[in-house]
Amino acid sequence: MFGFSKNKAKKKKQQDSSAGASGGGDITFAELIKKCEQSHDFVTFKKGVDHPFTLYYYKAMVNPLVIHQILLPQLIQHTDVSLKKLEKLLSLESTVYTNDVQKIQNSILTGSIFICSEHEKGYGILVPAATAEKRTISIPETEFSVIGPKEAFVETIEVNMNMIRKRLPIPELQIKEMRIGKLSKTRVAILFIDGIANKENIETVTQRIEKIEYDHIIDSNYVLQMITDKQTSIFPQLINTERPDRVASVLAEGKIAVLVDGSPSALTGPTTITEFFSSFEDYFLSWHVASFFRLIRLFGVLFSVLSTPLYVAVLTFHYEIIPSDLLGTLIASRSGIPFPPIVEAIILELAIELLREAGARLPSKVGQTIGIVGGIVIGTAAVQAGLTSNVLLIIVALAALASFTTPVYQMSNTIRLLRFPLIIFAQFWGMLGVAICSALLLGHLLRLTSLGRPYLEPIFPLRLADFRDALFRLPFNKQTRRPEHLLTQDPNRLNKQRVNKKDDIDE
């Protein structure tokens, strides 16, 4: 008895919470209309005093062509029909005959027109008539590629779904939709391929999105920050991409994608750290060239993170490891500089970050000019004024250039931040400090997961089979299986025996 009462109370609490989150609660139709009419863009339309039908809608949300070319001609011609009969005469898809006030509210707020009659109190027809304002499909901005498709996502979720379905025209591509955000009621779609994607990954993503408690969701980055495994980590644990071809590719691997209405990007996961250093353009090049470029990016990232800390550590503690031919050059470059190495390193690093931020926030043409001219002027002035050495200026400039080789913008921001703790550790303990900070960083990465899957895979845990498309890329005929860490329902991508079989050609 007590268990039944407890469950009943819990169920009632959930219902009350759901009603409160939707903003509607238990209100009557008259109260709903009274609340809506307080807004000046809400329209209550009735054709004449004796006309039985009344239309309710938000003017900014509906397409006026639906009203003037479809609804009004039918309403003027048929004044003595029932709502059920009128629904058939309209010949529109997705019309709903209902008296559910909560459903009426949600539909009106998303661009539907509610038609009610004086003869059928409480009931009416919901006619979907949302205006289809959308941006033209353009080229990717942050993931631009010289070779391959030039389409990028837009802010309309239907268009984004279309671009993905166009690349995966199979019934197994499943989409789960839900709305989140107490005020925004943002549409969120979870995409996966049934029969390939791991069901546990699907449930993990679904549950985490359903549990989001926030009033306003306006972009996929909001969702990304709320569903990641470890929100205190500076490392991105899901990939935020603007390329529909990349999303289609990872769905075929067995991953999950999340689309958010109003966002020109999609989330994909589970992901690994090596994916952040692989450009999707790699798959449009020969495997030799793609592998070489990936290794160049990894070297660039290591150089960007470690070059300045090593400079500070060597000049502060370890002069003895500098070659004698180079020592004279370093001494000459630092002669007359009043600051220790860490101060000049921090000055130059902050100057580079200021130039980056200024270039990113200004209009594109002005930003490029500021970045080039500002870098040259500030660097030259700093050296001539004796604030920094020309050797460190070269190192910092090369480190900044190397950080741009990261194809995923999220990881590029992480790399920019990592240099500063390493510089501080190098100032206090030299090379030992760099080693300690690197060990702490590695320990953090070993514990990190993406949707419960290891973040450092295939390096840890070691999976040699997944190295075929990690630090380097092997030919497509060698990638016969999907990544092991995804635990897909169907691990085989293609038949290995058929791929390796060579048919004889009769001459």
Explained architecture:
- The protein is elongated and about 100 Å long.
- The protein has 507 residues and is of the alpha+beta class.
- It has helices at 2-22, 29-36, 64-77, 83-90, 101-109, 157-167, 199-210, 220-227, 244-253, 287-317, 324-334, 341-361, 364-384, 390-403, 409-447, 496-500; strands at residues 42-46, 53-58, 96-98, 112-117, 120-128, 173-180, 186-193, 239-241, 256-260, 266-269, 449-450, 453-454.
- It has three domains: 2-128, no CATH class; 157-271, no CATH class; 284-453, no CATH class.
- A five-stranded antiparallel β-sheet has the order 1-2-4-5-3, with helices on both faces. A five-stranded antiparallel β-sheet has the order 6-7-9-10-8, with helices on both faces.
- Belongs to the GerABKA family.
In total, how many domains does the architecture comprise? 3
The secondary-structure element order is HHEEHHEHEEHEEHHEHEEHHHHHHEEH
Number of helices: 16
Silhouette: elongated
The SS-based structural class is alpha+beta
Please give the order of strands in the largest beta sheet: 1-2-4-5-3
* N→C terminal distance: 86 Å
| Strand tally | 12
Largest sheet: 5 strands, antiparallel
Please tell me how large the radius of gyration is.
Answer: 30 Å
| Strand-residue proportion | 5-15%
- Poorly predicted segments: 1-24
The amount of helix comes to 40-55%
Arithmetic mean of pLDDT: 86
Region (Disordered): 1-22
Protein name: Sopre germination protein
Family: Belongs to the GerABKA family.
Organism: Fictibacillus macauensis ZFHKF-1
